[in-house]
Amino acid sequence: AKNRVPLMAGNWKMNLNHQEAVVLVQKLAWTLSDKKHDFAKVEVVVVPPFTDIRSVQTVIDGDRLAIKYAAQDVSVHASGAYTGEISAGMLSKLGCSYVVVGHSERREFHAETDEVVNAKAKAALAAGMTPIVCVGEGLDVRKAGEQVPFTLAQVDGSLAGLSAEQVAGLVVAYEPVWAIGTGEVATPDDAQEVCAAIRVRIAEVHGEAAGDAVRVLYGGSVKASNIGGIMAKKDVDGALVGGASLQADEFGGICRFY
Ligand code: PEP
After folding, report:
1. What ipTM was predicted for this assembly?
2. Which stretch of DSSP H or E encloses residue 126?
3. Domain 7-255 classification at class level
4. Runs of H (alpha helix) within 127-207
5. Is 242 annotated as a binding residue?
6. To test the ligand 1 pocket, which listed residue (14, 103, 106, 241) has its Cβ within 8 A of the most ligand atoms?
7. Is 103 a catalytic residue?
8. What residues flank ligand 1, with Cβ below 6 Å?
9. What parts of the sequence cross the membrane (predicted)?
10. Closest by alpha carbon to 130, among 206, 74, 77?
11. Could you state, in order of their start, the residue ranges of all structural domains in the chain?
């Protein structure tokens, strides 16, 4: 994918107890060091639940590992009377490099609109973190053949008002909802179709340089056995991985696709 460094992000969702979370990041570090993973070739990010971030940070910092970590969500607010919310400032102080915003599970179960996702992306950027902005169509839209216009509308809404430099530096994750957690992975051509359309749209709206630089990931039932075909596509710059990221060997295999 041109000069863009591929990125593999493992979203643990609301899984694992605390000890399992610590063991998972340790095992991932072991498997990647055992296989002599080149972090300059593929960036590796883990996305634990909020409550495990500090312990993951301790493991990673303690051994100066090149693995990065992220949060699964962030508040649109900077601080104040928002019980239960976690601000971008809090996450950046914990050393998070990235924040996932607008995951389909947030959009579906928490009614997050593009407007909310946009505000979360802006909050992450203002705190010096990189948003991973999730978009993607459901099964009905796919069956109607409307996946490209549907997804591009989400991209437009979620990135509205950002500068060209901000868009160039962020990450968009194309995750067709019908492929998430279902075992039904999109074909490499399906992934390429929408990832390419996202890049073209970003180039049109935010300029050629932003379109060239923005990293577009695919997500949905990615495994070590299917990542190769997906990464062979020129507009796919990595993957957002759910289920398979809970196993160190499997996620390690995804990171070591090259
Ligand atoms: C996800 O939720 O971002 C995801 C891609 O999940 P899975 O890999 O389990 O389909």
Report:
1. 0.96
2. helix 114-126
3. alpha beta
4. 139-143, 147-158, 164-169, 188-206
5. yes
6. 241
7. yes
8. 11, 175, 180-181, 219-222, 240-244
9. none
10. 74
11. 7-255
CA-CA-CA-CA torsion sign (35, 27, 106, 93):
negative
Dist CA 103 CA 209 (whole Å): 26
Q: Using alpha carbons, select from 170, 172, 111 the residue that is nearest to residue 136.
A: 172
CB 86 within 8 A of CB 74: yes
Could you report the per-residue pLDDT of 80-139, keeping only the tens digit for each? 999 999 999 999 999 999 999 999 999 999 999 999 999 999 999 999 999 999 999 999
Residue whose CB lies within 8 A of the most ligand 1 atoms, among 240, 245, 246, 251, for a mutation test: 240
Work out the angle at residue 137's Cα, subtended by the Cα atoms of residues 207 and 155, and round it to the nearest 5 degrees: 20
147-198 pLDDT, tens digit each = 999 999 999 999 999 999 999 999 999 999 999 988 888 899 999 999 999 9
Q: Report the nearest atom of ligand 1 relative to the CA of 183.
A: 10
